[in-house]
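Technical note accompanying the year-one report. For the benefit of new consortium partners, we illustrate the data format agreed upon in the data management plan: each record pairs a sequence with a structure-token string. No post-processing was applied to the example shown here.
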Amino acid sequence: MHFIYNCSVYIAGFFLRVLGLFIPKLKLFVNGRKDVLNILKNELSKETPVIWIHTASLGEFEQGLPVIEALKKHYTDYQILVTFFSPSGYEVKKNSSAAHLITYLPLDTKHNAAAFVATVNPVLSIFVKYEIWPNYLKELEKRKIPTLLVSAIFSKRQIFFKGYGNFMRKSLSAFSHFFVQDQNSKDLLASIGLKNSTISGDTRFDRVLKILEQDNTLDFMEKFKQDQQCFIAGSSWPEDEAIIVDYINTTNANLKFVFAPHTIKKEAIQKLAHAIQKKTILYSELASNNPSDYEVLIIDTIGILTKVYSYADIAYVGGGFATGLHNTLEPAVFGIPVLIGPKYSGFKEAEDLVALKGVIATSDQKSFTLALDQLVSSQKHYKETGEINTRYIAKRKGATGSIMDYIKTLH
């Protein structure tokens, strides 16, 4: 099975290089990995120990960030290396000051894994949530390097718990310890003989609670919102936007609306703006206009969504009518009601909050309109819904502390 896996990785690598000639995102994926080993050799000091954290993409980076920050604060004499699998994560965070060095992770071939681990020679490796790369894990295990999986969540659907999943189960045995989100994950690991796990919860709760401590002031949002209620749709896809735009064009509710779309390509932004019948302005146009004169604002930039959410009275998190839900915790931490689309299965916090009724799942235009109108018209319903989210998040903080307590026993 290992042979088949290695062949598949080489074949995938070949096709990625070919497709990278035509697809810009895949070109970043391929070209970004070409010089990783030289970058590591030039940027990492051999005299200073390295802690390596690997994340798949932007969401996992944000999830692992509380641990990264805690490591950097506690282990001041260590180098912190963060690697990404996806261009969408690396390109956004490649210049982040959270780590000493941020690079791509080369594809999981035997050669790459051996060369990478030998070059980095980490004293500790941490993988976030789902990242299971057999060759890297085998190399780390061979070198007896402590390796953790943090904020992990498992389900019966995964290959590790299938009759044909022996190869991937063996890869899990390379982890020194698992920090899992729930009892079900702990039980599933135990069912395949892995009892080295701790229920620590999800580090994302620590991450979003820190948002409340930062300065979230945005002058343009102050001027845009004024004293009106504000509905903010974050990480929206066209399928989400169609539902919301229809509501904007037909409602008499005294609301201001903000879109922070998932993609900010000019064509998509213009299409969204043209569909809205109320007075609309783009973030990029604010310098020469008075924000308070407009009813709808479209954020055609990245990196400010968490601060924008702080101005929301009601939020919508996108993806639930498209490819899959984005982060519901970022708006929910502000103690406001959150609306989503129907595709939220597998997103634990969304499943929990829908059951508790702090997050409201909508399935079509009619249910979206009904849900939003009820929140706008009933102060009691609005307040109770937001308080559910506040309590849920507050009860789940502390995963980072649990992980750090364990790490301190190693170093």
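Partners are asked to follow this layout when depositing records. The first helix runs from residue 2 to 19.
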